[in-house]
Amino acid sequence: MARMRDIRELQRVFGTRVLLRRRELGIRQDELARRAGYASHAMLSGVERCRRLPGWEHALRLADALGVELWELLVPTGPALARPRRREEPLADSLRRAASLLEEGQCA
């Protein structure tokens, strides 16, 4: 079973790649939706905002409408797709601080 983090990462990569390719082609969402055979651009909007991940059939239709192979929309490459740095959890910060205090002998 895929983990939620992996699914969110896939949504982020796929959505960003679709958005970048559409902009590269200089077309609007409604035009891409028409080319992909969608009734409206609502689903496409969700994909580009990294909120929705289409099924395989829709993903293939999008790739075809964008003039790329499906795998090209799934591979995280380029600076725009570099994984953002994670904020360290407050717990991790607290544990590090406690460990340094212990090492300095300030806690017993």
Q: How is this structure best described in words?
A:
The protein has 108 residues and is mostly helical. The protein has a single domain (4-103), classed as 434 Repressor (Amino-terminal Domain), CATH 1.10.260. The chain has 5 helices and no strands. α2 (29-36) packs across α4 (56-66). The radius of gyration is 20 Å and the shape is elongated.
Q: Can you write the helix and strand succession as a string?
A: HHHHH
Euclidean distance between termini CA atoms: 44 Å
Please outline the major beta sheet.
none
Total of helices: 5
Total of domains: 1
Structural class: mainly alpha
Helix content: 55-70%
Quick description:
Helices cover 57% and strands 0% of the residues.
Break the fold down into its secondary structure elements and pairings.
Layout lengths: L3 H22 L3 H8 L5 H7 L7 H11 L23 H14 L5
Helix pairs in contact: 2-4
Name a few traits of the molecule.
5 helices
